[in-house]
Amino acid sequence: MAGGFLDTAKHSQVVLYRRVDDNWTSAQLINVKKMEAEHTLREDPFMHPGDMLFVPKNKISKIKPFLPNANMGGYFPIP
User: Fold this and answer.
1) Are 38 and 23 in contact (CB under 8 A)?
2) Contact 35, 43 (CB under 8 A)
3) 79 vs 77: CA distance, rounded Å
4) Contacts of 53 (CB under 8 A, 6+ apart)
5) Distance between CA 17 and CA 52 in Å, rounded?
6) Distance separating alpha carbons of residues 9 and 29, to the nearest angstrom
7) What are the beta bridge partners of residue 24?
8) pLDDT digit string (tens) for 27-52?
9) Which of 16-20, 39-43, 44-48, 71-75 has the least mean pLDDT?
10) Burial of 38 (0-12, 13-18, 19+ CB in 10 A)
11) Residue 24 pLDDT greater than 90, yes or no
C-alpha cells in the first residue's frame, strides 16, 4: 500500500513497531532484502492497525548531499 522502497532505503534493517499494551511497544527487525533474495516470506509479518514501520536511509543517501554533482557541467558551461 505504501508504494515500495525509495532508492535511499536500507531495506535490510526495517523496524516494525507494535503496541503491546498502553505502556509497552515491541520492536522487530525485518530483513526485507534477505526475504527478496531468498524468495521466502517466512519473516513477512502480518500488519495490524496501529503498527508503524521505520525504514532507515542507506549510507549513500546520508553522504550524497556532500558529494560533488557530476551533472552541473550540463547546466553551466565549463571553460
Assistant:
1) no
2) yes
3) 6
4) 2, 14, 15, 16, 17
5) 5
6) 15
7) none
8) 999 888 888 888 887 767 888 898 99
9) 71-75
10) exposed
11) yes
